[in-house]
Amino acid sequence: MWSVLINCINGLYDRYQLYRISAEFAIYLIFGQSAIILLNEAKTAVDLSYGEIRVQTMTMKTTIVMRSFNDSPEYVEQTLTSLSLQQGVDFDLIHLDSFSTDGTLEILKKRGGKIYYVSSSEYIPGRTLNYGMELCQGEIITFLNADATPVGPDWLYRLLKPLVDNENAIATFSRQIPRDDAEPLFRKDYERSFGDGEEHRKWKHFFSMAASAIKRSYWEKHRFDDAITSSEDIDWTYRAKLEGKDIVYVPDSIAVHSHNYDYESSYRRHRAEGGADPWTFSVKPKDAGFLRQVTLPFVAEFARDVKYAIKEGVPSAILDSPTLRWSQKLGHYHGLKDGFETAVKARAIAPPDVAAPTEGKYTVWLDEDFERKLDTDFAVIVAELENLSTKPDAIILGGGYGRREGGVLEINGEKKPYNDYDLYVVFDLKTSVVPKKLAEEVHQVSERLSPQMGLEVDLCPVSKKKLQDAEPRIEWYELRRGAWMLKGPGRYLNLMPDYRGFEIPPEEGERLLMNRAVGMIYARRALQKFKDSKSELPEDDLDFITRNIYKALLAAGDVVLLRHNLYHYSYRERLKRLQSFELKTIADFDKIKAGHAEAMNYRMHPEFKHKTYAELVKFWEESRETFKLAHRWFVAVTTGAGSWDSYGDQLLSGLDIEPKTVLNIYKNIRLKGEFPSSVKESLSLTSHPQKRVKVVAPYLLYDVEMDGENKIADFGAKIARTLFIPCTDTISRDSADEFIQSVELRFLSVWQEVN
Quick check: 86 pLDDT over 90? Predict the structure, then answer.
């Protein structure tokens, strides 16, 4: 049967190409999408593939970029099978996957092609397309969605040929035909939008990136717009069209591709597209009235739906039409309103922060054995958390491995995770606070799994409401942009506010410096235990000390970026930004850049270069001076304080009136261990106790040496009062060492309680 059909089609082709297209499309309409796919396979089997017919007089080259995220293993398999049958074109295949969990990723690995990862929280269409282009070589680049199945082994040849033949053409796109399971109204939309192209030629502009090709030479001068989050392909090709470039629709290059959207999804999709229209087409508010954008288009579309339903004998489409079309038109209308606010900013909107794709799921570089180990570990963690008395709404992997920038420690040929496992366990609660009993359950899982896995399994219980109301803090910003889902919908993190790095307030820099200063003090205390040793430190101590020193060096560079609105959640991006940055207001700024680069390299490739007490002491002292440069500079430029004394006075003087003032007083009373004796003393307790840690940290870090020498007599009384330690106004040098020990213990205790 198939060979007869093939011969008929090829015979028609020899005379009139259009007849062949019509015949093939007729088979699709009668027998469905599966018939087309089987037809292609049968053609190849009998060696009558029309990809070998005389249309192919040359071999073209391209790189195919395939984006995927839970696109159905069946569809992905069909797409890759069809790609393997393409003739007349040499191509490389690159996958950009957003951590598919439905089996798609396994199909990609089995069928070949280079895989790069972009988490769903980082997926911004325009930026992802730009990254895809950066990964490719050659002049012509093809984009194909993983669930868009090419029809025929000459699909690719036909798609690319206009770009080769027409110097003015910079983009081509295929006809898309719906799948067998497409609902009637969506089937009608695809046929109307694509078809022979006559209908969309009447529109202002039309294009689809799902099965398309573009020229690199044009893209290099006109990249995809990073700032818009929808219709990026329409925007790019429309701008090219205004420049006089040709955008070519290729109706005889066919791909099977369609989606059945529910009413809510249709509303969201059309709202997103509507939001891009003022940006791309310069739609004016006067043209965005309800009558023009909703009422009249709704009536016209409903009329077309009724006509189609009667013609095709699908009366159910008449019942589905009003709700679907109303949700689409209303969504587009609301999107236009959204778009006016952004369009007036004349393209000054900062693009969302995203990071470049990586070859590994958890690390920058692919290591399949290492990935399998982490996959196994995370599966165990998720299984344990599923057994909690309250099931989590989502489980999110954060930290280095969530950003795809985790470290791999190699010792004696064995590779093991270097970073802690940082996971957020999200519960759908009515309040922002997770109940104490539930939080304790999560903590018990952490304590049980950490020894089993040989590293810290840090499980942070958090409510969904807390994420929805997240403030612009480094922690929440990094979670929103640099994490991926172990359990829950891929776009779950979209419920969080989408802050940019430049929106993080200076207070976050102070908090970061405080925490890293504490880490350096911990490192010093750990080192002092080995002052009489000349041998290498035990691995656990070596790791703890080295890790905290590098964290401080990292923070020294990060606060410079934060201050200049350049902070980014990705280590790689921060490194690139700082190394290209010049700052004359910090003496020896090159030391900060060098330390930051060394720390970044350590994060990716942990290696212990300093192993003995003497080596580590020197490393710690040099790093402390570098950290001090950044710490002192940041405090001066953000607070105006000219010394540590004035910084402390500024933090603790005056009255802090804020919503949490009463809570601050309560926390300070707990730390002090007694109630204030007067109203004046009560007012002095209004500051958050964390500020007390910020005040004391510089003294304990910079004025206490590794060998015990200190200047405690100069500032001991002040820090004692700050930490609620009873003492006299003067401290003798004879008792200084003992006093320092008690102050450090008190300081670290307060930090643990309030941090």
Answer: yes
